[in-house]
Design a protein that fits this description.
The chain has 330 residues and is α+β, with helices and mostly antiparallel strands. The protein has 5 helices and 18 strands. The chain has 2 domains: 2-21 and 298-326; 34-282, no CATH class. Helix 1 (2-24) runs antiparallel to helix 5. 43% of the residues are buried.
Length: 330
């Protein structure tokens, strides 16, 4: 009976130690409470490298807003309606927002000085600044704080319920948990080609997954829309859409200590391209809310060490007991 109890005790501790150790071994970096940043170097289905940069955002602890040039809540024509991601972040910080991270969003009329930028729907702080197109998908945050991805019929079914929104490509990368099987199902930009990409998705638990993939270089080939969809699904997304890619695909994070913003990927233009809007990850919907420190992983790592130490001690104890029982009686 004692031997059986000891064996069960050892097995339980081994399972506990292994479970915690998997978490401790995760390379993802917790930037702020509710915001995790990660870099991955994956191989696409063509056998070439693709550098992937991602943010996972818990909207119960952080928030996403539509970033605009100079943080002006109005759209402008031509080049006046475009600004680099770093400039948009600086403008939001100037106006009191605590920015955690950011990425590019919608497509835009880059060389047309007569058109409003960006191309599709924009909602900022509950105000519709640009109407949704008949084909555009969109990512938004509803006034109840939940993330939402949909199309024009979803928007019309929820009129007045969105606080923030940016548009994306035609179609969806993932819908109802199913990833596309052909590029043309997920959009009409660079169909069939491996390219720099940007996408946003929502996981089953409601967290937001933001992705930028480098491309057009010897270091990183990029992904097709189908490859991007599969990557998003593998990371738990049940719905996802394609955003503007190519030289517009950019992501940056703010240093938790200095709040200095830096671009983390390598834009294919060799520098930041002025864009029309962005998704900014901020501490709160309202400005002047301080940063929230991330939850430390240290206790979990300590538990791991303690767990393995106890397992080792118990193993030795079991070995000694077993050895003693095997000794012949004098």
């Amino acid at each position: 009976m004692k031997k059986t109890f000891l064996k069960l005790f050892i097995i339980n501790f081994i399972m506990l130690s292994l479970t915690v150790n998997v978490f401790a071994a995760n390379n993802a970096q917790s930037l702020y409470d509710g915001v995790t940043y990660n870099e991955e170097h994956i191989i696409n289905t063509d056998g070439k490298n693709a550098d992937v940069f991602s943010l996972t955002v818990d909207l119960t602890k952080a928030y996403t807003i539509c970033g605009l040039p100079d943080n002006i809540k109005a759209l402008q024509v031509g080049s006046k309606g475009q600004q680099t991601l770093s400039e948009m972040v600086a403008a939001a910080q100037r106006d009191g927002y605590t920015v955690y991270a950011a990425m590019n969003a919608d497509f835009f009329c880059r060389f047309d000085e007569n058109k409003i930028q960006p191309e599709g729907m924009v909602i900022r702080d509950g105000k519709l600044l640009n109407p949704i197109g008949s084909y555009n998908s969109f990512y938004g945050v509803m006034k109840n704080g939940k993330a939402f991805i949909g199309h024009i019929y979803d928007y019309t079914n929820h009129l007045g319920e969105f606080d923030q929104a940016v548009s994306g490509d035609y179609g969806a990368l993932i819908k109802n948990g199913e990833a596309i099987t052909e590029d043309k199902q997920g959009g009409w930009h660079a169909v069939g080609d491996t390219e720099p990409r940007a996408a946003v998705g929502i996981k089953k638990d409601g967290t937001v997954f933001m992705v930028v993939v480098d491309g057009r270089s010897d270091k990183s080939d990029g992904l097709t829309l189908t490859q991007l969809a599969n990557y998003m699904k593998e990371n738990g997304c049940v719905t996802a859409i394609n955003l503007d890619g190519g030289g517009s695909a950019q992501m940056g994070i703010c240093d938790p200590e200095t709040q200095e913003f830096k671009i983390v990927n390598s834009p294919s233009d060799g520098q930041e391209r002025p864009i029309a809007n962005a998704i900014l990850v901020v501490s709160d919907r309202e400005p002047n809310v301080p940063a929230k420190a991330p939850v430390s992983n240290t206790p979990k790592i300590i538990v791991t060490v303690i767990g393995f130490t106890l397992v080792a001690l118990l193993y030795v104890a079991a070995f000694v007991i077993n050895l003693k029982n095997k000794r012949p009686n004098n």
